[in-house]
Specification:
The structure is a single chain. Helices cover 86% and strands 0% of the residues. The protein is built from 3 helices and no strands.
Length: 104
């Protein structure tokens, strides 16, 4: 069960990077398509990932995680994918809540 939850979280993180890439492409073509997900990936690697050197613990870690997922969901919504945005938001937040309550 834990493997399924962690794999689902990883898929949500990858989808967030893809969503940021889509938005970046619409904003600045290739530079935006590479830059936007790169910035998010560096922020996640520095502060949010399980092996981060400056890992945010507790409330602040949850806020960072939820902020990245919420912004990705909002980007989907602003691109006109209303139902995908809602589905992504529910799945990403549900997995985050499971991880925090199960203390994984």
């Amino acid at each position: 069960m834990i493997l399924f939850i962690m794999a689902s979280r990883f898929i949500c993180e990858i989808l967030a990077l893809i969503i940021f890439g889509m938005w970046g492409f619409l904003q600045g073509k290739i530079v935006g398509a590479i830059g936007a997900p790169l910035v998010v990936a560096v922020i996640w690697a520095m502060f949010g990932s399980p092996n981060a050197p400056y890992k945010l613990q507790g409330f602040y870690g949850s806020i960072l995680e939820l902020f990245i997922f919420l912004v990705a969901s909002y980007i989907l919504y602003s691109l006109g994918h209303t139902y995908l945005s809602l589905i992504y938001c529910i799945i990403a937040f549900g997995i985050s809540i499971l991880i925090h309550f199960m203390d994984i």
